Amino acid sequence: QVQLVESGGGLVQAGGSLRLSCVASGSISSINAMGWYRQAPGKQRELVAALITGGPTNYADSVKGRFTISRDNAKNMVYLQTNSLKPEDTAVYYCNAVLLRVGSIRYSSYWGQGTQVTVSS
After folding, report:
1. Which of 20, 28, 79, 92 is found 20 to 30 A from 73 (Cα to Cα)?
2. What is the pLDDT of residue 81?
3. How far is C-alpha 41 from the geometric centre of its chain's CA atoms?
4. DSSP 3-state assignment of 65?
5. pLDDT of residue 10
6. What is the average pLDDT across 43-56?
7. Cα atoms found within 13 Å of the Cα of residue 99, Cβ hemisphere only
8. Contact 22, 74 (CB under 8 A)
């Protein structure tokens, strides 16, 4: 069993900052990528930022220069530092990991339960 748990969401004024954290636990052999997605009411889930192990970092254009993704590989954790938050950043933020379970031969995608970020104007 694999579980992803996010934390760090909340209510913040425009221009403020939040640091989101996510930890992956369970029978994990290796992690190929970890990232953050978000879904605002009435909208589709979209990529915010993702880190591929040994590869590039991807950011949505709307958050470039304001958000920073980082990983702690030893702890199976991924972080999202969000700065200069705007009301349009309001959404549920989901952690995602593409990983290989112990005993499996295929990488699979796993999701956390989400954490709410609300930015007031």
Report:
1. 92
2. 98
3. 18
4. coil
5. 97
6. 94
7. 26
8. no
pLDDT of residue 54: 86
Tokens 């993702």 belong to 50
- Please give the mean pLDDT across all residues of the chain: 97
Choose among 115, 28, 120, 109: nearest CA to 79. Answer: 115
| Whether the predicted pLDDT of 120 surpasses 90 | yes
Report residue 70 as tokens. Answer: 């980082």
Listing DSSP states for 67-98 in one string gives EEEEEEGGGTEEEEEE-S--GGG-EEEEEEEE
What whole-number distance in Å separates Cα of residue 19 and Cα of residue 23? 13
Residue 18 has pLDDT above 90, yes or no: yes
Which residue type, as a one-letter code, is found at position 18? L
Cβ contact 7:115 at 8 Å: yes
